[in-house]
Automatic annotation (TrEMBL):
GO terms for cellular component: nuclear pore. The keyword tRNA processing does not apply. This is Nucleoporin Nup82. GO terms for molecular function: structural constituent of nuclear pore. InterPro entries: NUP88/NUP82, WD40_repeat_dom_sf. GO terms for biological process: mRNA export from nucleus; protein import into nucleus; ribosomal large subunit export from nucleus; ribosomal small subunit export from nucleus. The keyword Lyase does not apply. The lineage of its organism: Eukaryota, Fungi, Dikarya, Ascomycota, Saccharomycotina. Keywords: mRNA transport, Nuclear pore complex, Nucleus, Protein transport, Translocation, Transport. Residues 334-356 are annotated as: Disordered. It comes from Candidozyma haemuli. It is found in: Nucleus, Nuclear pore complex.
Length: 740
C-alpha cells in the first residue's frame, strides 16, 4: 500500500487545478477513483502504474455538490442544486490519458425546487431507480424507462408529511423488507417510513432466501398474534388484516420464484419479480432524534437495517444509531372504532312527579299500578345494554393493545447515542461504506467507526440474546484540513486506507494512525469482577455468563502429580478433560436457560401490562371502578323504591281521612264495601258475641308468656315470640276508622 501511495503522489492526475465550492470523492470497486469539484469530474485508474486519468467538464451552469454510485457500480449520479447528471461508468477509455472524457450521460431536471437528498433504490432489479427528494415533492426515476418523466411523483403533503424531510435513506439491501423501506427524517427529529416503497411498473430484484425470510417472519408474527389474543379480537382487526395482506404480498413473490420459468437453484441469486401494488404512504414516527438531524443508511452486510442520525452544530456533533431489529410490517391502521354507548333516551322512566296521587277511574278499590311491570322491563333492557356495552368495551381495549403490539415491530431501536464536542471549527463530513463502516471527518481529524462485528454477533446469537451495542473506532493520520474523503480497501492488505482531498487541492492516501495498544495481561478478568453475592441474589445476564466462557471446549490442560506412574497421569488427564467438557456443556445450558428466562420474563411483563413491575393492572382498576358505580346505583334505586312505597301508603291513609271528612264528595260503591269490611274487622278484633275478643286473647297470651320468660325458654326463642306478637298487633289507626 505504501507503493500505491507513492505512485499516486507522483501521478500527474492530482496535480490538475481542480477546485470548486464543494468537493466529493468516490471509489468504484477499489479500481477507479472519482473526484468531483465545481463542474469538473476527474476519473483516475488505480490499477495501472501510471494512474491514467480522464477529465469530464459539465460546463455552465452545473455545479456538483455530491456524487453517488449505484449498487451495480455502473451509474454515477452527479447531484447539482436543481438538476442531476447521470454518467455511465462502463468502459472508460483510460488509454488516451489526459484527454477530455465524453461519457454517455443525460440530465434529470431542471427541478422546480432545490434537491434535498437522493438515494438509489436497493430493491430495483435493474439498479437504475434513483429516488429524489426535493423541497416539495418525492420523485423516482427509472433511468432505463425514461430520463425526463418520473415513474413516481407525489407531493409531501399528499404522502402525509407535515414537515419537509431533511434527508431520506433505505434499509438493508439484503432484506426484502429493508430494501423496500424508505425512511424520512423531519426537521423536528421524527423518523418516518414508507413501506413498501413501490409504484406501478416497478420490478423487485430479490433472492429466494430474502423472500423466504420475509414470508417466514410475517407468518411467525401472525402466529404470535393468534396465540396472544382471542379470536373475537383478531377477527376483522385492521392491523391483523394488514398482516394478512403482507403475507399475501410475500406469497405472491414466493409463487413467482417457485415457477419453473425462473431458475432459483442458487438461493442468493437475484431474480426479477412483479409485486402486488400497494399505495405508498408515510407512517410513523418510529424514532425520535435531535432536532435538525439527518439520516444515513449503514450497510451492515446482514438482514438488519441500521441508520445513523447525525446532527452537526457549531460546538458539538450528535450521533444516534438506529436499528430495525424486528420484522417490518405494512400495517397502516391507526384507529379502532369505539363501541356505541347505550341509548337510554327511549327507555326513560315515565314516573309521576313526586309520586302525586290521582283519583282512580273505577273507584279506589280497583286501583292497579301497571307502571311497575313496564319499569322492570325497561330496567332489564338497560341492564342488558350496559352489559353488552361493557363487553364491547373490553374487546375494544384488547383490539387497541393488539394494534399497539403489531405497530411495535415498526419501531426503530436506539442502539447507541454519542455526543462529541468540537475541538476545532468546521462542518461534519460523514460517509457510509460496505461492511458496517462509517467515516467521520472534521477539519484535521478522520475516524472510522466499524459496527459490523456487533451485527454479526446479533445475527448469530438472536434470539437467545446479544451483548450491548459497541463499535470499533480507528483514527487516521492527516496533517491538513480535509475537504473530502473516501474509503479504500485493498485485497492484498486488510488494513483500511482513506483517500483525502485537502482544502489546498492535494489528494493523498493515508493509513490508520499507529497507537499504543494495551497488553493482553492488562485486560480485566470478567469472572473476578462478579462476586458470589451478585450471582446468587441478583443473577447474571446471558452476556455476563457468556463472557466467562473464554476457552474452547477442545482445549487441554497439563497436570502435575507426585506419582511417576504414567497410567495414573493418563487416567487423571482423561477424568479432568471429561469433567471440564461436561462443565462447559452445563455452562452453555445455563447460559441458554438464563437467556430464555429473560425473554420469558419480558413476555410476561408485556402480557400482564405491568407498569414498573409493581403497580396494579389498569384494566382491573377500570373494572373495579365500574362495578362500584353500578353497586352504588343499585343502592340508590332500592332506596327510591322504599321511599315510593311509603309515599303510596301515606297517600292511601290520607285518602281515607279526606273521604271521611268530606261530606260533599260521595263515596263509590267499592269504597262503601271496603268500609263495611273494615268495620267487620274492627268488631272481630275489638269485641265478639261468642266469647273473648281477639284483642283480649292477645293480651292474656302476652301476660302468660311474660310469666314464663327466662325459666323454660332461651333468650332467642323469647325474642322470636315477641317478634311474632308484634306482627299480630294491628295499627291503632285502623281501630278508629268507622263507617259514616
Amino acid at each position: 500500500m505504501a507503493s500505491l501511495a507513492e505512485s499516486l503522489a507522483q501521478s500527474s492526475a492530482f496535480k490538475l487545478p481542480v477546485s470548486g465550492a464543494s468537493t466529493s470523492l468516490a471509489v468504484k470497486e477499489n479500481e477507479q477513483l472519482f473526484l468531483a469539484s465545481g463542474r469538473t469530474l476527474l476519473a483516475v485508474d488505480l490499477t495501472s502504474a501510471a494512474h491514467s486519468y480522464k477529465v469530464f467538464d459539465l460546463g455552465h451552469p452545473y455545479n456538483i455538490e455530491s456524487i453517488h454510485i449505484n449498487n451495480s457500480q455502473d451509474l454515477l449520479a452527479l447531484v447539482c442544486k436543481k438538476s442531476i447528471v447521470i454518467v455511465f461508468l462502463r468502459r472508460i477509455p483510460f488509454g488516451d490519458s489526459g484527454q477530455p472524457w465524453r461519457p454517455l450521460k443525460f440530465v434529470l431536471g431542471e427541478f422546480d425546487t432545490n434537491i434535498v437528498s437522493v438515494a438509489w433504490h436497493p430493491a430495483s432489479c435493474s439498479n437504475s431507480e434513483l429516488v429524489v427528494l426535493t423541497e416539495n415533492a418525492l420523485q423516482s426515476f427509472d433511468l432505463i424507462i425514461s430520463t425526463t418523466k418520473p415513474t413516481f411523483r407525489s407531493t409531501l403533503s399528499n404522502l402525509g408529511m407535515r414537515e419537509n424531510p431533511t434527508s431520506i435513506a433505505f434499509g438493508s439491501p439484503l432484506s426484502l423488507s429493508g430494501s423496500l423501506s424508505l425512511y424520512l427524517c423531519s426537521p423536528s427529529g421524527e423518523v418516518h417510513s414508507i413501506f413498501p416503497f413501490i409504484y406501478p411498473n416497478f420490478y423487485i430484484g430479490a433472492s429466494k432466501r430474502a423472500v423466504d425470510l420475509f414470508v417466514a417472519e410475517t407468518q411467525e408474527l401472525l402466529d404470535t398474534v393468534e396465540q396472544k389474543y382471542p379470536p373475537r379480537v383478531i377477527a376483522g382487526h385492521p392491523s391483523n388484516n394488514d398482516l394478512l395482506n403482507q403475507l399475501n404480498f410475500g406469497l405472491h413473490l414466493q409463487n413467482q420464484i417457485e415457477s419453473p420459468l425462473i431458475d432459483c437453484s442458487d438461493p442468493l441469486k437475484v431474480v426479477r419479480l412483479i409485486p402486488t401494488y400497494v399505495v405508498p404512504i408515510v407512517t410513523g414516527s418510529f424514532a425520535q432524534v435531535s432536532k435538525g438531524s439527518k439520516i444515513l443508511s449503514v450497510d451492515t452486510n446482514s438482514t438488519t437495517s441500521c441508520l445513523v442520525a447525525f446532527n452537526d452544530t457549531d460546538t458539538s456533533v450528535e450521533l444516534a444509531y438506529l436499528g430495525h431489529l424486528c420484522p417490518q410490517v405494512m400495517s397502516r391502521a391507526r384507529d379502532i372504532p369505539r363501541p356505541d354507548a347505550p341509548n337510554d333516551a327511549g327507555l326513560k322512566k315515565r314516573g309521576r312527579e313526586k309520586h302525586e296521587y290521582s283519583r282512580p277511574k273505577k273507584g279506589f278499590g280497583f286501583v292497579v299500578d301497571d307502571d311497575d311491570d313496564e319499569e322492570s322491563v325497561e330496567e332489564n333492557q338497560i341492564a342488558t345494554q350496559n352489559n353488552e356495552y361493557s363487553k364491547s368495551w373490553e374487546i375494544y381495549e384488547l383490539k387497541i393493545k393488539c394494534m399497539e403490539f403489531i405497530h411495535s415491530h415498526q419501531k426503530l431501536t436506539t442502539l447507541s447515542c454519542e455526543k462529541y464536542k468540537k475541538s476545532s471549527s468546521g462542518p461534519l463530513m460523514i460517509g457510509s461504506y460496505p461492511h458496517g463502516r462509517i467515516l467521520l471527518g472534521i477539519n484535521k481529524k478522520i475516524q472510522m467507526v466499524d459496527c459490523s462485528h456487533w451485527f454479526e454477533e446479533f445475527q448469530d446469537n438472536f434470539p437467545l440474546g446479544f451483548t450491548e451495542f459497541y463499535t470499533t473506532k480507528t483514527n487516521f493520520a492527516i496533517e491538513k484540513p480535509i475537504a473530502a474523503f473516501a474509503l479504500f480497501d485493498n485485497a492484498d492488505d486488510p488494513t483500511p486506507y482513506v483517500f483525502i482531498r485537502s482544502n489546498s487541492g492535494e489528494t493523498v492516501l493515508v493509513g490508520p494512525r499507529v497507537e499504543g495498544k494495551p497488553s493482553s495481561n492488562d485486560k480485566p478478568d470478567p469472572s473476578k469482577a462478579i462476586s458470589t453475592k451478585l450471582l446468587h441474589e441478583t443473577g447474571l445476564s446471558g452476556a455476563d455468563l457468556r463472557s466467562m466462557l473464554r476457552q474452547s471446549p477442545s482445549a487441554t490442560f497439563s497436570f502435575t502429580s507426585k506419582t511417576r506412574n504414567t497410567e495414573d497421569l493418563v487416567a487423571l488427564t482423561k477424568i479432568t478433560n471429561s469433567i471440564r467438557s461436561h462443565s462447559h456443556q452445563l455452562s452453555k445450558f445455563i447460559i441458554a436457560l438464563n437467556s430464555k428466562i429473560e425473554v420469558q420474563q419480558k413476555r410476561n411483563l408485556l402480557n400482564g401490562n405491568l407498569v414498573h413491575g409493581g403497580q396494579k393492572l389498569e384494566e382491573f382498576n377500570e373494572r373495579s371502578s365500574m362495578y362500584k358505580e353500578r353497586i352504588d346505583k343499585l343502592f340508590e334505586r332500592q332506596k327510591g323504591l322504599l321511599k315510593r312505597g311509603d309515599d303510596i301508603e301515606k297517600d292511601i291513609l290520607n285518602r281515607f281521612e279526606s273521604s271521611k271528612k268530606s261530606t260533599s264528595l260521595p263515596l263509590s260503591q267499592a269504597e262503601r264495601s271496603w268500609m263495611r269490611e273494615l268495620n267487620d274487622l274492627r268488631e272481630t278484633v275489638v269485641s265478639t258475641k261468642e266469647g273473648e275478643s281477639l284483642q283480649e286473647r292477645v293480651q292474656n297470651l302476652s301476660y302468660l308468656l311474660e310469666s314464663f320468660k327466662g325459666a323454660q325458654q332461651a333468650a332467642d326463642e323469647s325474642n322470636d315470640l315477641s317478634d311474632d306478637m308484634k306482627k299480630l298487633s294491628l295499627n291503632n289507626s285502623l281501630v278508629n276508622k268507622g263507617y259514616n
